[in-house]
Amino acid sequence: MADTKGPSDSKDFTVTIDEVAYESESTSPTPSLPPHPPPRPNLLERCSLFIQEWTPFTLVLSYFIFSTCLYTICSEGLIAVFWFVYMATNFYIASMTVFEAFLSIIPCREARKAVSKLEASGWKFPTKDDELLILDIIIVAYLPNEKDIIMDRAFYALDKIEYPRDKLRINIVYNTPYPIEPLETELHQLAAKYSELRVIRVPNSKSKADNLNYFFTLNTGSDVIAIYDCDHYMHPHGPRWAIERFKKDPKVDIVQGRCVVFNSGENFLTSMISVEFDKIYAVSHPGRAKQWGFGLFCGSNGYWRTSLIKDLKMDESMLTEDIDSALRAVSRGAKTVHDLNVVSYELAPTNFQSFWKQRLRWAQGWTQASIRHLELSYKRVRMEGLERNFRVRFGLISLLLIREWSYYLVTQYTCLVLSFLITKFPSTVAELARLVYFQYPVSQWLLIVSIVCLLATLWITNRAKSEFATPWMIVVFSLLYPVYLIINATIGLYGHARQVINYSSWNPTARS
């Protein structure tokens, strides 16, 4: 492990015209913010917030009640049509999922070969240290929410990252509605001790996007910018693996790494989220990139060419500014690769309330991004000199349209089953199984194929699982997968309802 250098023995970045402003932000807190938390809203404002908060719930509940009641009065012939449509659509989604999973075997195998080759060489990376790109790592923090973990992450980054210190700058970019002492003073004292560390308090910021956009206005002389949420522990070699991808292929614009949940053993919820993240980051993302020809920046543990991210910036009006920026990069023809060796470890929500708030924000953000960028799926050319082929456009249809529609298909199937239970309540387990799964011959085959696809996907996930997930977690996740799909679809509908009423609150995930 490389030694952490102090200000006397570590080179700094090239002096730029913005150096004075940059240094002033890194050495002292901004004094203009209020010294105390803002006052609570008055009664009228609280009533307005209450109505806005519960309107989506009312809309989604009404949707489930109305749909279930509607199926109870439908004819047998119409029910058969609905049943076939839902099962056929589920078969399509399951088959696309397993196809992505099989394609993910290739990048997973390549990642393991790369590690084996490097291990055989004595962990000597292909690129010489003096030829590496200059890297800015941004750790984005909202201090009232992450005040208990920020110092730990700062010390970890300074001590563990294996990258030449003359080509590295670690930037803690944070916002807070009121001063937090002695924490802020300790952060700035740490920056004075380590020349590779910069602590920047962003004035008038209310979101992660604001923090990032402020940093993008600073001229630090970097070639690549890496973005991390505050709860992440980046693997010591993660930044080096990412930069090697840029050096290997000059056409690469973004390297998205794998995010692993490291608190999987805390409770049942975190164990299931751990398996879900392995499925998403080790299977779905790299598999989709192989299948459709484009990758996506996922918000954290992502490395950007500095020129591209400074040009695109983040849209603070979007709840998931990361997905929006990723799709805008796709619209420009940017090349995004998913590298399974660029690993970071993050915290999963430890209670259902935090999980629910986080996923609702993600769901509404995906809805916003899908509405804004759906045109990418049917427009061949958006800018001069760029053409998206049919493969990419169909992949975007699957991502932005079919994925959003799937929430209705899953919940409609759920309502259909509920209507059966109301009108033909079974007296035995066998009757329940026949009622739910085997009413129509064609549905038997569609169901069996869908189950095979699910098992194949989870088998591949098991092979690619992280060290924090166990085979038993995979088994439990598999058994509960139908419940997972229903919860995920319900959250998706909730996100749609929030978008309809223009719900705009930004709720950061609680950290401890």
From TrEMBL:
It comes from the Eukaryota. It is found in: Membrane. Its main location: membrane. GO terms for cellular component: membrane. One of its GO terms (molecular function) is glycosyltransferase activity. Keywords: Glycosyltransferase, Membrane, Transferase, Transmembrane, Transmembrane helix. The chain crosses the membrane at residues 60-85, 405-422, 442-460, 472-494. It is a multi-pass membrane protein. SUPFAM superfamilies: Nucleotide-diphospho-sugar transferases. InterPro entries: Glyco_trans_2-like (IPR001173), Glycosyltr_2/OpgH_subfam (IPR050321), Nucleotide-diphossugar_trans (IPR029044). Residues 225-458 form the Glycosyltransferase 2-like domain. Signal peptide: none annotated. This is N-acetylglucosaminyltransferas-like protein.
